[in-house]
Amino acid sequence: MIEKYINAASGKTQADVVLKNASYADVFCGVIRKGDIAVAGDKIVGIGNYSGREEIDCSGLTVLPGYIDGHVHIESSQLSPEEFASLIVPRGTTAIIADPHEITNVCGTAGCDYILKASANIPLDVKLQLPSCVPATPFETSGAVLGGKDVEENIVKDEFFGLGEFMNYPGVINADPDVLKKLEAAHAAGKIIDGHAPAVGGNALNAYLCGGIVTDHECNSEDEIAEKISKGMYVHIRHGSSTHNLSNAKYITPSNMRRFLVCTDDRHAADLKDKGHIDDALRKLVEGGLDPVVAVTCATLNAAECYGLKFRGAIAPFYLADLTVVDNLKNFNAKYVFKDGKLVAKDGKPLFDTSSRYLPKDVLNTVHIKNLVPDDFILKINGNKAKAMTIEAGGVVTGCEIVEVKNVGGDVAVKGTDILKLAVVERHKMTGNIGRGLFKGYGFKGGAMGITIAHDSHNIILLGDDNAAMAKAGNVLKEIGGGMVIVESSGKVHSLTLDIGGLMSSRDAESLQRDSKAIIERAYAMGVDRRLEAFMSLAFLSLAVIPKLKLVDKGLFDVEKFAFTNIEA
Amino acid sequence: MIEKYINAASGKTQADVVLKNASYADVFCGVIRKGDIAVAGDKIVGIGNYSGREEIDCSGLTVLPGYIDGHVHIESSQLSPEEFASLIVPRGTTAIIADPHEITNVCGTAGCDYILKASANIPLDVKLQLPSCVPATPFETSGAVLGGKDVEENIVKDEFFGLGEFMNYPGVINADPDVLKKLEAAHAAGKIIDGHAPAVGGNALNAYLCGGIVTDHECNSEDEIAEKISKGMYVHIRHGSSTHNLSNAKYITPSNMRRFLVCTDDRHAADLKDKGHIDDALRKLVEGGLDPVVAVTCATLNAAECYGLKFRGAIAPFYLADLTVVDNLKNFNAKYVFKDGKLVAKDGKPLFDTSSRYLPKDVLNTVHIKNLVPDDFILKINGNKAKAMTIEAGGVVTGCEIVEVKNVGGDVAVKGTDILKLAVVERHKMTGNIGRGLFKGYGFKGGAMGITIAHDSHNIILLGDDNAAMAKAGNVLKEIGGGMVIVESSGKVHSLTLDIGGLMSSRDAESLQRDSKAIIERAYAMGVDRRLEAFMSLAFLSLAVIPKLKLVDKGLFDVEKFAFTNIEA
Question: For chain A: N or C, fewer Cβ within 10 A?
């Protein structure tokens, strides 16, 4: 192939495609330059003056390297990889570092295998990380467990690009033997290890980094960013649906710029469709005052460097011809998207067909619970003060507030208050485990809502002010094989099926998004605070690696103490 | 090992060594920070507040990552790798990207093997590049030929880090089949390819880069640097003995900084001993106005990134404990040097023993010529105008000047003029080839001088104003097994033996340097222009890949036309 590239570059043969009269981002020098961009086969072969078998006039447009999402869980889109690609590729994203942590928590490595095979024929590079923390903590019941030995066996395989975000930071810092086994195996295989260490600093951060972990997407302050970058980490600026820290971009300086990446982590279909993907992050970053070429560099070259993606992430000879042609560096509307030198999207529409989607039995029918009854949701509390979880808009950090509770007939009465009952029902192994707690400030009233997406073990999260509605909501989720549900106190049911692991839908993005919007709107109509993501915010209430107070199937969990806690205050 | 690092980082166990009260360069953020640096085993494990089994007070000192020389031919030091290390490690260099191009041109892959084995037990990481262009051009006779097939066979071996500087840029641009074979083989093996493309630009540069070549150390202008960096190259700032382009540092901007590296390429022992190695480059860069942390970043992190040296080139947890502790960021005097966590040099002196040096027979006795006689140096020229080579101080580019010549008895008479005779005598295969030419402006008078270092085929270069002295000089080089020689017209001989391939000495650095200085001084005393390097400048007169006019064993060569040329003007 090198011969073809050289000859097209030298002009001995004609290029396959030439983007004529292009302005383009030179991410090596941080400037916009001009020149024809010549492509032969899958690579850019030259910038200068070229003619090609096919020529596209790019006058007035700007050519950028295809965007790289540095860290994403496809599952959070609730879409199959094929349909996920149909939304993000037309937005200009051509590669993702995908951590199939969610589906693996439900289905084990069969979940990884599903993502891999479903991604095989789409024009998007899906670099698959082997999830490192399945389950994320030993305090909850997941559908699968990947121990040190499992990681050893799998990480050597070519299909795994690296080891996914190491959320069990206490396990690393304490040198837990099974954790060490995972880290050693990844290093022996020469694979990168992603990190996740919110608010970890000082000697604890040093210890965490001695696991050979190189990225973090959980930074929340200037000091945290400065410390993490100075200690060798790459820091992802995150533009998820529930979690976003794009404002961290204000800490980018010319000197530390190369250590910033852009990721979406968790972003659902509606946002991908309506707002966008990395393109939306770029838009907002530039709107926030970041130099557009710097923003693009973070989303392209920096990610390529961090993840060792050679000859990618820039517009230069011998670089992969993953290109996004945008209207301008303010709106970032993608006019054309090229993957491996081929035009794969135009005017925001995919030019590839995703109507035939891979769907193995392994990932279907994953909700295993006994029939729930109203009494399952009785909450007994001694005394009249209890810990209630709270949540802030735009983050996944929860708080703990001491609230007054009223006991009525051996159950906490929440109706008419700003407190809801919360329950996490184990749904993988039919253990019958139900974790129970209180949740303040969500706003929902008049029934129950529930979801089978509950980071990271993906049990059923239910909330409500009505025990019968809560029981019914759980039972509906079992019936539909997973998804989202609202049960009004009147008995009226609204549901959305997510048949793939209870996390994603095998349907097309458009119809799913329509139905998804409807149920989300229903939740807001029933009082959910519009500053929150109606369902996706719920999905993080059980994520026992993020402070402060969380609820898992085995009970209420104090993340800062990394131990279970009583609900009584 | 990860367990040891983590436990030392967390404070569960004591660090092996702690650099207390250190100021250190944070090359990720471009600033100087403060903190104890804790080392366990071969790695840095933490920065903060630490105590160790051994503690070194670094108050008033500054800790830097060990320097990485991004491109060097050890052979140019005329020292064995062991003695080379004894000079550069105490200066703060802990890793080099070494291209054993010279010894390989003389001895074939046995030369690579020699460098590798001689480097095995020294505290210096020698990343060995497989020379790509042996010989550099098909126009000269070398001791060995490494064709495409040889590269295919060798590049897959673990001992080769990458493919050495691809000097045959016309071969790449023209997609020469044997060249393609080499490039494809390196890519298939996942190895980096170094470049060498002086003044190559435009579509020709695009074609060259389509060989997958990533570095260049031959830039001479702002435009050349801008084009090469914008097209994806890393640019080495070079601080050699004959060739230096440190002034290119003025083109470093905050945006393109990460693409600059520092190298020495060719630097001889006297400069290493008297002036220094990368430390001297840093001194001069800072003197020239470059921010010291930027200079250090180019010589450390940037090189590590370019060459894919993971967890190296910075001071951070899990990074290799290659550290240079300097007095300040102006003088860069190395007080302590650590390699893999061990103190290996102090106050400029090595703490390792290099008295036992590896010396295989393969690299000895490499001067094979028949006895030379005065008539071998008769130069017949038709007419009275001829092309003479000229040379500029500080570079390896030669010029071509048309000079008046006087024919006396069928030979050009040069005595008493500013023109010298120049000859390149083939010394590998006893072909009897002698290339003959004229050389203006060197200044030497009253005899002959010669050297068996003659880039890149390392035949014998002789110059003089006396045919008999030239013959005798060649014969002395044969007798001593290679090296440098001066023969005065009186018959008096001064010589320095370089027994390893006629390029390097098996002696200790100190005594070699003393004798080397003496013969160099003798050359200056006999008139050599002091702005030039008395012997090393000669060594580039046959380098037929650098413009403009060169002399090889097969005749006078016009590099711009890439063809032989007549001496007659």
Answer: N
**Nearest chain A alpha carbon to B175:** A3
C-alpha–C-alpha distance, residues A155 and A84, integer Å: 25
Cis status, amide bond into A123, omega within 30 of 0: no
Which residues in chain A land under pLDDT 50? none
**What is the rounded average pLDDT of the residues B422-433?**
97
* CA B389 – CA B394 distance, rounded (Å): 16
Q: For the packed helices A2-10 and B177-188, what is the interaxial angle rounded to 10 degrees?
A: 120
pLDDT category at B394 given cuts 50, 70, 90 is low
Alpha helix positions (H), B451-527: 467-480, 509-525
Q: How far is CA B481 from the centre of its chain?
A: 22
What is the rounded distance in angstroms from the CA atom of residue B104 to the CA atom of residue A418?
80
Helix intervals (H) in B483-530? 509-525
Write the pLDDT tens digit of every residue in A163-219.
999 999 999 999 999 999 999 999 999 999 999 999 999 999 999 999 999 999 999
- Tell me the torsion sign for CA atoms A137, A143, A147, A151: negative
State whether residue A552 is helix, strand or coil: strand
Beta strands in A365-414 (DSSP E): 385-391, 398-404, 406-408, 411-413
Q: How far is B176 from chain A (nearest CA, A)?
A: 9
Residue of B nearest to A316 (CA): B231
Pairing of strands B93-98, B67-72: parallel
Neighbours of A353 (CB within 10 A): 10
Of A11, A230, A308, Cβ closest to residue B203: A11
Average confidence (pLDDT) over B203-218 = 97
Q: What is chain B's length?
A: 569
Distance from CA of A190 to the nearest CA of B (A): 10
Q: Reduce the secondary structure of B203-216 to three states and give it as a string.
A: HHHHHHHCCCCCEE
- Whether A203 and B48 lie within 8 Å, measured CB to CB: yes
ipTM of the complex: 0.92
Chain B residues with beta carbon closer than 8 angstroms to that of A227? none
pLDDT digits (tens, 9 = 90+) for A347-388: 999 999 999 999 999 999 999 999 999 999 999 999 999 999
pTM of the prediction?
A: 0.93
Which band of pLDDT confidence, cut at 50, 70 and 90, is reported for residue B242? confident
